[in-house]
Structures are given as structure tokens and as C-alpha cells.
Design a protein that fits this description.
This protein is of the alpha/beta class and 218 residues long. Helices cover 50% and strands 11% of the residues. The chain has a domain at 58-181: HUPs (Rossmann fold, 3-Layer(aba) Sandwich), CATH 3.40.50.620. 31% of the residues are buried.
């Protein structure tokens, strides 16, 4: 009995859907790149960039607090927290990060003058949305009554603030590392050169805001 060979037309028909899917994927990639380039150009070369930056930055005037909270990230945040502690703005410092990084930030704060007994270490926060929930598990904290000075980078302040407020923290003030500028910070950050340098962080923050909104974390 003779075996029938698969028809040539059937293999060509199967290849056509694969080709269409590949073309659609390539078009989606191209559209995504074009959209990213367009958004980047708008942020750098138009006043919209300043408008977006001003809304990503939420820096508050200094006021007395119960805790200074260092969100995991740049080491300059721990230095700023130590300066705030030494200047008497709060009597306790919380370092919140993932695993060993929290201990590193604690040691930096100690090296800049914060005694070990004044530091609470939160090693469980892996992302911005985690910090409020892991911080509030530390002993002795009251998220509604206690006052918090939260130290993070400028373009991260508004999202971090929104996460803490969403988690029920009522008294939250945002600060950024100012020690290299003698304590001064200009939230306007004008100029295309500045915006170009900030562009990767701005794009990441905009995507993070959208993602956090979809997840219900803000």
C-alpha cells in the first residue's frame, strides 16, 4: 500500500499564519520604538518635560518627625538620613531595602553619625510598593499617628509618597539627598540638558506609575 505524501499546499498554508504572526510582532516592536522615541522627544524638547518632572517630584519642607525612612537605593539617601538625624529632625532612622542591602545602608548611616541603637532595619522590601507594608510591621510604629520623613531620589518621590499614603500613612513628608548641594534643592530642574540626563528615570517612572495604577498599588 502506498504512503501518501503531504501535499505541498498544506505546508505552505501552515507557514502563512506563522508569517503573519511574525509580521505583526515586528510591526508591534516598530510601533513601540516609534512611540518611545516620540515620547522621549516630547519630554526633552518641549515644555511638557518640565511639566512631567514637576509632577514626579514631591519634596516637602522639613518638619519634626518621629522616624526618618531611607528607601533602598543610592547610598546618598543614607547619608541624607544621617544628616537629618544629626540635625535633630527625628530620633529614629529606618532603613528599608531587600536583604543585605538594608544592612549596608544601616552601616553607612552609622558611619555618618547615627548610633546603631537609633536604627531600625527592614530587610523585606524589594520594590517601592513593598516599603509601606514592610515598614509598618516594625515594632512600635503607628502609621496613622507617627510622623515620617521619607528619603529617596527626586523623581521617585511622588510615587513613593503615593504608595505610603495608599497604605494608610497619614503623616508623610518626602525628602531627597541634598547634602552635596548644602541642603538646597530646586524642584524646577530647568533646561534640556537636565531633562536629557533625567530621561531614562522619567520614562521608567512614567511606566511604573501606569503599572502601579493597573495593579491597584496607588
Amino acid at each position: 500500500m502506498e504512503r501518501s505524501e503531504p501535499a505541498e499546499g498544506s505546508s505552505q498554508a501552515a507557514a502563512r499564519p506563522r508569517g503573519r504572526r511574525l509580521r505583526k510582532a515586528l510591526l508591534w516592536v516598530q510601533w513601540s520604538i516609534d512611540a518611545a522615541v516620540l515620547v522621549a522627544a516630547v519630554l526633552v524638547w518641549t515644555p511638557a518635560g518640565n511639566w512631567v518632572e514637576r509632577r514626579l517630584i514631591a519634596v516637602d519642607p522639613l518638619a519634626k518627625a518621629d522616624y526618618i525612612v531611607v528607601l533602598g537605593g543610592g547610598y546618598s539617601r543614607a547619608v541624607e538620613a544621617a544628616n537629618l538625624y544629626r540635625d535633630g529632625w527625628a530620633s529614629k532612622v529606618i532603613v528599608s531595602s531587600r536583604g543585605p542591602q538594608a544592612n549596608v545602608l544601616s552601616r553607612i548611616a552609622q558611619s555618618y553619625g547615627v548610633p546603631q541603637e537609633a536604627i531600625l532595619v527592614d530587610p523585606l522590601a524589594g520594590r517601592t510598593a513593598d516599603h509601606p507594608h514592610t515598614v509598618q510591621k516594625l515594632p512600635g510604629l503607628d502609621r496613622q499617628a507617627d510622623r515620617f520623613l521619607i528619603v529617596t531620589s527626586p523623581l521617585h518621590t511622588s510615587r513613593a509618597q503615593a504608595c505610603f499614603q495608599h497604605a494608610g500613612f497619614r503623616n508623610v513628608r518626602m525628602r531627597v539627598p541634598n547634602w552635596q548641594a548644602g541642603g538646597r534643592f530646586d524642584p524646577r530642574r530647568p533646561g534640556r540638558g537636565t531633562r536629557l540626563g533625567d530621561l531614562p528615570t522619567m520614562m521608567r517612572e512614567l511606566l511604573a506609575w501606569a503599572y502601579y495604577k493597573l495593579r491597584g498599588w496607588l
